[in-house]
Amino acid sequence: xxxxxxxxxxxxxxxxxxxxxxxxxxxxxxxxxxxxxxxxxxxxxxxxxxxxxxxxxxxxxxxxxxxxxxxxxxxxxxxxxxxxxxxxxxxxxxxxxxxxxxxxxxxxxxxxxxxxxxxxxxxxxxxxxxxxxxxxxxxxxxxxxxxxxxxxxxxxxxxxxxxxxxxxxxxxxxxxxxxxxxxxxxxxxxxxxxxxxxxxxxxxxxxxxxxxxxxxxxxxxxxxxxxxxxxxxxxxxxxxxxxxxxxxxxxxxxxxxxx
Length: 259
Fold this sequence. Notes:
- The chain is an alpha+beta fold.
- The protein has four domains: about 1-30; about 40-90, no CATH class; about 90-125; about 125-225.
- The chain is about 65% helix and about 10% strand.
- The chain contains six helices and four strands, in the order αββββααααα.
- Strands 2-1-3-4 form a four-stranded antiparallel sheet.
- A hairpin with a 5-residue loop joins β3 (about 70-75) and β4 (about 80-85).
């Protein structure tokens, strides 16, 4: 490179640096402007909701009475819906929802406990006879529990009948029933109701234990690699075919027709 070319190159360097600096500034400014535009577009919303009179309302801001209402959020530039917000639940609805979630969680835990119990029973026994014997003990305990509940209900019913007779006699005699007496009657009513509900549950559990045992035996055979139980219907002897009636004798005449 000769001297003139070197001088020209040196003259271009400040210009290149200046252009490079301007390009960088321009890029930064464009980025900031784009971000500002995006933020502005994000803020430009329209809200659509139905007021208490059933009329559809549109606004770029939500009045206080519409904050908890179901609404649709719309991009003001494009006119497209960007979000759908459900209305806030009332305290009663939230309480009902929480009860439902708690019940679902209780059922889930109950099913998990049943599965773990089932797995433990399958792994604890070596033969079907051991499993059947253990299950027979559970059935007997369940029956004893039902009998105890029935005896308790009978005793409560007798006590309640006696207290009601005493309260009736006091009223007939013109004497007010003792408040403690009335409280005892109410408590007996509640306890009898609770025991009767428990009795229904225990009887339902007992009724389902045969099916539960059959299911456990099936799982036990699968876990131990045993063949499935033979079908009782397949093992039952086949019903005897009815004997065929003898063919009528062609030479014999009609009954009673011999002459």
